[in-house]
Backbone:
């Protein structure tokens, strides 16, 4: 049996058909063109799904279910996206709308949770019981799997590890509080520090790399400048990594999972991120011994598709 | 069927026999006299258990199992206390030793987890799926129950929420790191702030209450002085409550449990603690709505006995 997974993001809609072990048989993507009517976006999700079936020469009867991963909060039982600040999917019954277009069981899940499922089913955390997937991008999101199942608390809104305060009264966070991990460990935070530093040190490579156009500086600019040996950039990266590590130490102390996976754009840094983080964790976790494996996501953007596809398998097995 | 529960603490050994719903039928305690040989302490645990059976006119055949709650880290499967810094129970096979004295199945569990089980089985969090029990005393411990079962990570050492950093580079913690929640939210932290303030403000009631003998100041002294309207004490209590709340907000954002229970000596403050904490949480939790109930432990010291007793029931059901 096959499964269809859709990863609905603010920029792209990615979809794929997998076998029952989560191996992608075919995949494709189309721009979300965010800001449109939600119905038009759902039309495109359905059309992309049908295109994949055609390409694979299968029909709806060969597919077990459709799973959709998307940002924001949702009522999974009812299939309703309650609030997704980047997508305008507020109070939209995604499952009902999808079923009007494709006659298959349909499930929705938070995108970080989908990525966690993907890495757990056929990625770097294959077969682990307890894992945490941290996605570092505009914000810091978390997908938590406990005993092989997504954990998001008693009211479906847990897993907000990005909004764990690590610096009381610290930097302002988009959530309205101060000092959240996200305000220090997101790509946005690294970009912020890079821009402040470039303005302060016009001799730094950070400034050079954007020809003084400070608004062009992003997280990668800072990493690139650090790679070139720039002292200012290296200082920022060291501080950034320290803050990423503080949040990870907290999560290890609380969850002691088998694996913590770092995904999102920043994970492209690979060992440059993982090695210093692991070093700090080894020094700082409670009890003095780091048993949790820290690594970057191996499925990359595919984790979202795979995890979404596997929703059909997981949810049907639970019924 | 009946269950025997033992709560082994640094000060007292408390034990009780419960019915199958965790209701205590008889209980008693004896001083731990910490510092003795572990065998002598285990002798007393067994003797206390036998005394309770005699009192209740029952014998070993009426008891299903013995459960022991104790501080520190342990290998629950093997029944070994690995490390308990307040008890000197290092690499002691508590289960084997107990079985030599009482011929019954025996289980060990961390004391904060036992208290969580107790409150979950017949206390304030009766029937909840996800709860967190926070014990505030010398340190800050946590017992986490997820889907009705104790959660302590993949390697048995999770649940160390007290060692979640909330102030990067903040106060020194006993664990060797800086800025842990425990360094701000423990009774020890409140005592520390009370002593500092008393030395600085000899006109404060905190100073008065101990006749200037600053070493006599403990957490209760600060609460008592605050009750008397002392401005300095109220400032410290407000700050203390703010830090307790920061850690709780983090836990709500990550776990969104049905209930967070506050136990330990500080919980004697009742509403004076819960009301301002709940107010802060209502203002600060992610998503803007506090769905988690925050309350003090209702079983008091009995929670440890009940939870330990129920280990026999839980573990046997799992076999």
Residues:
């Amino acid at each position: 049996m096959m499964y269809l997974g859709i990863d609905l993001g603010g920029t792209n809609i990615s979809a794929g058909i997998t076998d029952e072990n989560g191996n992608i048989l075919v995949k494709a993507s189309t721009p979300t063109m965010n800001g449109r009517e939600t119905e038009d976006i759902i039309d495109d999700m359905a059309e992309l799904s049908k295109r994949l079936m055609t390409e694979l020469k299968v029909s709806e009867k060969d597919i077990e279910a459709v799973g959709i991963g998307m940002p924001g909060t949702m009522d999974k039982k009812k299939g309703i996206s309650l609030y997704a600040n980047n997508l305008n999917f507020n109070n939209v019954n995604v499952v009902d709308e999808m079923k009007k277009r494709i006659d298959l069981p349909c499930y929705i899940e938070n995108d970080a949770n989908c990525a966690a499922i993907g890495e757990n089913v056929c990625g770097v955390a294959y077969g682990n019981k307890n894992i945490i997937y941290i996605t570092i991008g505009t914000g810091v999101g978390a997908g938590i799997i406990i005993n092989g199942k997504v954990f998001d608390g008693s009211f479906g809104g847990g897993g907000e590890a990005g909004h764990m305060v690590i610096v009381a009264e610290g930097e302002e966070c988009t959530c309205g509080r101060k000092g959240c991990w996200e305000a220090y460990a997101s790509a946005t935070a690294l970009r912020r520090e890079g821009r402040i530093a470039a303005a302060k040190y016009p001799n730094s490579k950070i400034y050079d790399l954007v020809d003084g156009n400070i608004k062009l500086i992003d997280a990668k600019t800072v990493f690139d400048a650090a790679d070139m040996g720039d002292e200012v950039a290296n200082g920022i990266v060291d501080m950034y990594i320290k803050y990423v590590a503080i949040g990870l130490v907290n999560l290890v102390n609380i969850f002691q999972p088998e694996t913590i996976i770092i995904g999102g754009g920043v994970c492209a840094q690979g060992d440059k991120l993982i090695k210093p983080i692991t070093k700090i964790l080894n020094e700082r976790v409670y009890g003095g011994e780091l048993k949790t494996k820290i690594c970057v996501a191996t499925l990359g953007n595919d984790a979202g598709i795979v995890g979404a596809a596997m929703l059909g398998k997981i949810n049907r097995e639970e019924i």
About this structure: Chain B touches chain A at residues 73, 128-130, 142, 144, 146-147, 151-161, 163-168, 170, 175, 177, 242-243, 246, 249-250, 253-258, 284, 286-287, 291-292 (CB under 8 Å). The two ends of chain B are 17 Å apart (CA to CA). Chain B is about 40% helix and 20% strand. Chain B has a mean pLDDT of 94.
